[in-house]
Amino acid sequence: MQKAIRIIAVVLVLGFLGYLIVAGAISNEKAQKEPWVPAMTLGNRETAEHVFYDYTDIMCPFCNKFAIAMAVHIDDFQKDYVEGKKVYYELRLTDLLAKFHPESESTVNNSHLSARAGYCAADKGKFWDWYDWILAKLMTDYYQYDIGTAPGKESIPKLDPEYFTKVDDMIDGLDNEYMASCINSDEIVAKVNKYTKKASSTVRGGLPYYSFNNQTFTGFDGNWDVEHDWTQAKLMFDAGIAGKK
Amino acid sequence: MGKRKVNKFQHKLKNLFETFVDRCKFAVVGFKYLLTRRRYVIALVISILVFLYILSQLQNNGANWQLLWSGLDFGSKMQVLGRSFRSMLDNFTSFQGILIVLLALMQALCVAGIVFAIRHRQKDDAINGASAGSIASILAFVTLGCPTCGMTLLTPLLTMIAGTSAVALAEKLGIVLSIVAFVLLFATLVHLGYLIFVNVSAERAKEKHAKSN
Asked: Based on the number of CB atoms within 10 Å of its own CB, is A12 exposed (0-12), middle (13-18) or buried (19 or more)?
């Protein structure tokens, strides 16, 4: 019995080490370089010296710590990285959380709807405005009350489509009628499915997944403090830039 | 006949339970004694910090480890290390944070117990303790992370076999494996604590005998 336990322990240790090696090798693979949706990018792909990809799901809390810090410091990012270091940044929106949790009705619903609404806004060239709006809304309605912020915490309930589409007059160029009809269109559903399928072949180990030049990151060590999270994001950008040299 | 067998089984079970409870009590006395010795306290504190660091990092799927292995300069890497310790403190208020502290404490006690066993030439007990402890560590390590985001070390292993929907399975399996890890660690601690108690009692008896002679 004791011998069996020892053998199992050795096998588990070796298996764990093997996994780390394989996962490391996989994470070094280059992300796809073709832009998905021009409205979800920052900077110029043609003249860029550094190419950053950010794979996300709007209902993923770890992704949103990063996204909120970015949204607050977007001017700094534009000045220091897009203009200063010629960074091309592309957000690749998915509904991967729905694939991860098919058993959770609220996760599937919210993940599908948020991704569709994001692509609807992008079709009108208003993605970044809509993204800032929905992140602020999630923060005001849920994250600030510690809802949906981490595993083990109270989950965000099943949301109506209007939660993602009723922009009222908050965003120029987007209206409730367009968003409400767009979110259920076959074209948008097909688009979200297509890009999520593409992301599935690149994303390893869950979301968020970042590919900054050849440096990849899975996860984000944030704590919902915008300044802390922005510093963490900058360290990741700098690591991506340093890795190319 | 059947009733007698059942009674015998119940009696045996009761005896086993009572023996285990006694062992637990002796183990507590054993560890209490161990923690009166400075070198073991230092080993315990260092082990707690190491385990806390590793377990906290795994919560974010080792995002900071990726930074430490990146092309960042030395100063930035030191900043990453410092921030990692800070984020450890931030996470302690959550359920997972409490789980991590408990796991780190149990792992560290296990290390201190193994060191004691090695120093007292109880090689087999040390190996058994280390084996059970390492299984528990791996179980604990692979189940940490953010299951909501599909981000635990267990997830990619399962997704290779069962596709992206395996994230849900990883979440459920993670809970089971965490419980197994706790049970294993607890059993190891009881075993090591009892060993410490027996050794210390024997040492004291020897000293007493030597003095009386």
From this structure: middle
